UniProtKB/TrEMBL annotation:
Keyword Nucleotide-binding: no
GO molecular function: hydrolase activity, acting on carbon-nitrogen (but not peptide) bonds
Protein keywords: Signal
One BP term from GO: carbohydrate metabolic process
Gene3D superfamilies: Glycoside hydrolase/deacetylase (3.20.20.370)
Record protein name field: Peptidoglycan/xylan/chitin deacetylase, PgdA/CDA1 family
Keyword Lyase attributed: no
Amino acid sequence: MRVFRTCALAAAIGLLGHSASLAQTSSLWNNKQCAVVLTYDDAIDVDLDNAIPALDSLKLRGTFYLIGSSPVVAKRLPEWRRAAQRGHELGNHALMHPCDGSLPGRTFVTPDNDLSKYTVSRAVSEIRANNVLLNAIDGKTARTFAYPCGDLQIGGVKFYDQLQNDFVAARGVMGGLQTAAQVDLTNIDSYMINGQSGDYLIDLVKQAQQSHTLVVFLFHGVGGGHGLNVDLKAHRQLLRYLKAHEKDIWVAPMVEVAEKIKSAQASSAAGKAKG
């Protein structure tokens, strides 16, 4: 009987701990099951023509990672400003979108934009210059960064280490669902979407709901406009699912979700230090 009571007590304590953990996670995700971040890279016409109108029609907000030198930024600047005013984040995707041309499959990289030929100081300076441009568009200082091509290093040096005070967080390109404690704010996981179905996109969200985690989508073309593309129908299916389940799913720009995670991680670290 004593063994039974001991086992029952241990099980009860385990359940209480699990419930407390879930409650803490739900609180972090604005008292919802999970968090979803919709990100769109490269500042292309379809962002303004397809993606933003689709999001606005359902009152959802996303993060648009802008390349400062993109002609679509210069030609359509008032539209980007209006998007920011409606709550979309204008994230930093570098001034020139440099990628490491020394890696396999990088024949598209031009000599002028070859990250492997950059110095760290040049990369940092260009990224900061893009922040100045973005601030001139939206008037905001808090934003996130997305690594062009997912490249983190120059000559073995992580250039973002010098930029951590300039951003709330940085988004990478490796897929994965993560709890707040697992998130690396210097390289947040994301699922790069290229041709997957609406059912696939929705299934990722359902997995996040079940595991109470963060899922980040990385889009380029939406209904065309880029070599990496999601079909308009698939994109619309995802947005409709998110809207239909908004009581259970927190959909927000990366900067807002990252700020929440950053605060939670800082609190956890402070608690452990006191302990």
